[in-house]
């Protein structure tokens, strides 16, 4: 086996946070799902769940019988990290320009640019508060605590549902920045996409 054009390695993490059953006041519980995706030819891909025997000591990733890789974090011409080792018995090296961003980077209050109303808040304790009514039932009402959500740190994407409804609506929030408007969030779900920012060009309404 050799490494072909388009070959890649990706390590995907989904951070899942949720309220303990029957306790709406306790801090959110957290679990992470990690998978290692390998394509040696750029046409097919194998996925190895980390929780099925994988180990990582801070620099070496090992999936028994599949891969052993040593990672180095160093900045060179935009590249943030590199690795070397073996995948399926083949010597490999690689590097990446990408970096994961924790949800804590997006802590703040976000206001809907159409109405100037509070639409979303990410707290220091990483609770998510959201105005479901603004997107589902018309008039904005109040922020409600999201009972469970998933966050993908490699894509800055937050997903959750309105669990108070018999037919929950799913929401996908793409987080980022918007220049002088500070933090930004593109909200999809419950109708047409909406944009919320942390700094409006005028004073937001409470």
How many individual helices?
Answer: 1
Secondary-structure element series: EEEEEEEEEEEHEEEEEE
Number of strands: 17
Could you say which structural class the secondary elements and strand pairing correspond to?
A: mainly beta
Assign a percent range to the helix content: under 10%
Radius of gyration: 20 Å
Rough shape?
elongated
Q: Mean pLDDT, nearest integer?
A: 91
Q: Give start-end ranges of low-pLDDT stretches.
A: none
Largest sheet: 12 strands, antiparallel
Number of domains: 2
Describe the protein's architecture and organization:
It is a single chain. The chain has 206 residues and is mainly β. It has two domains: 8-96, no CATH class; 103-197. It is built from one helix and 17 strands. The chain has one helix at residues 132-136, and strands at 8-18, 29-39, 46-49, 55-56, 60-63, 67-76, 79-87, 90-96, 108-112, 118-122, 128-130, 144-145, 148-152, 157-161, 170-177, 183-188, 194-197. The strands form two sheets. The chain has a twelve-stranded antiparallel sheet, with no helix packed on it. A five-stranded antiparallel sheet has the order 4-5-6-7-8, with no helix packed on it. Strand 4 and strand 5 (60-63) form a beta hairpin. The protein is elongated, with a radius of gyration of 20 Å. The mean pLDDT is 91.
